[in-house]
Structure formats: structure tokens, C-alpha cells
């Protein structure tokens, strides 16, 4: 082994690197990433940061990305076309952030103002924006990041088709509305974390390091949304989340639409991709449920005070 390959190995964020990984080796990389980026300690820190955010909003810092060093040689163990299609999909998932933030703000402002502010900022009486929410500030860095990665890998600019946002719809039942919205947000952060984690398992070097930046934001958001929802809604909350596995499968179906046709290598690659992604979703949920046991009512009250009355179980 020469010096440069030692160096290349030492910077891999997903543990051991295999030039042609089989399924179990990719799984071991996914597990490694989960232990590294979603340890109980990290999840706990991300959640306990939330009350501090309410008092003193501050954006999570990113490591510098070495754009010029990103090359398609850093894609490992998967057809580059599939990897690049997943990056393109990330660009779509990440837009339009302003509309997402507004939707959340509308649901949250009556239920928990500090959280509404964290996500969607504050407004003057006439509706002008006074301050952008931290969640929005962090999220709006993601689309340009994936666009740039795409461009660096392909040499082309990506034409993106932003998702459509449903927007705020009140049913007249505040608890139910906020509840549904929280579940949807958690599912989105969970899905994004899983997809970016998968991208990191199949990359190395500057490419992997770039993806690690938005991925850590998603984990941070996931822990915050999860924890505060657990605080507001208590136990009933977890059973409801199980139903959202369906949503995640929907995300996969979305990918299926772009499934490459007429190329056997890609077809096989796609089947494996789906298996690995389902593994990642499930493995992440196991970790979150494990962490969830630490979220006792006493601990949550210490962080956020008494749960808001209007959201308490009816
Ligand atoms: Fe994001
Ligand atoms: Fe997110």
C-alpha cells in the first residue's frame, strides 16, 4: 500500500473501504455511519440544544467543502448513474424550502411559538419577514450543495423540479393538525437522513465529506423534531409513526419512476439499492427508538417545561 492510499483510507468517514463491496460490507459501512453520526450522545446533544436555540438562535457550523476535489472516482460500490440519480433526487427533495418553512410556521405558531420561530422565523404585523428561522437557514443550504455536487460529478447543470407543497390546511382541531404535521416533518427528516447516509456509504474522500454536511443538519433536525414532539404528545406518538414507513416506501417509488430501463447492470444495481435503502431506514428507526427510551417525561420537562395544555392527549 502506498502513502496516498493510506491517506485516502484514513479519511473515509464510513469505516473500512472496500473497492467492490458486497451487501454485507455496505451494511457494515451503514452501521458504522449510524454509530458515528447518530450515537445516543449526539442525538441527546442535538435535542438539548433546542431550548438554547429558543433563547439564542444560532446556525450549526459546516466544515469547509473542497469542491474542486470532488470526482466521480469517489463513488464506490454502486453504478455512478444510480448514485448521480440519487443526488439529483436530493435536489428535488430539498426544494422549495421557503414554502416548507411557511407551512410549518402556520401549523406551529398557535401551538408553540418558540418552535414556530425556530423553523420559520418571525414576521411583522403586516406580514414582512423580520427574521429567518434557523431550520430554514440550515435547510436552504442543502439544495445548492447537492446541485454543486451534481455539477461536479457530471459537468452538467441540473434542471430541478421542486416538490409541490400542500400548505397549511386547518381542520379546526389544533392538536390533530400539529400532530400530523410533526409526524410528516419527522418522516421527511428521517427519509433525507437515510438517503444521505446511503450516499455516504457509497462514497469517500471530498464527495463523502461534502454529503456529511447536510446529513448532519438532517440528523440535528430529526432529533429536535422527534424530541419536542415526544414532549408535546407523549407516548401515543410512536405508534403513529409506524404508519409513516409507508411514506418512506413512497419515496422509493418516486425513485422507481426514474428507474433506468434496458440496462441489466443498472437493473440489478437498482434492486440492491432498494434493499440497502430499506435497511438504512429500518436501522435508523431502531436507533431512534433506542434513544427514545432516554426521553423520560421528567427529562423532557426539564428541557421544555410543562407540555402545552392544548396539545395534551384528548
Ligand atoms: Fe435538507
Ligand atoms: Fe431536513
Q: Would you kindly provide a written description of the structure presented here, covering whatever features stand out?
A:
With 314 residues, this protein is mostly helical. It has one domain (21-311). Helix content is 65%, strand content 2%. The chain has helices at 3-10, 23-37, 40-55, 80-93, 97-108, 113-120, 134-139, 142-154, 174-201, 205-233, 236-242, 245-256, 264-292, 297-304; strands at 122-123, 129-131. It has a two-stranded antiparallel ribbon with strand order 1-2. Strand 1 (122-123) and strand 2 (129-131) form a beta hairpin. Helix 2 packs across helix 9, helix 2 (23-37) packs parallel to helix 13 and helix 4 packs antiparallel against helix 9. The longest helix has 29 residues, at 205-233. The structure holds fe (ii) ion (FE2) (2 copies). The site of one fe (ii) ion has 6 residues, from helix 10.
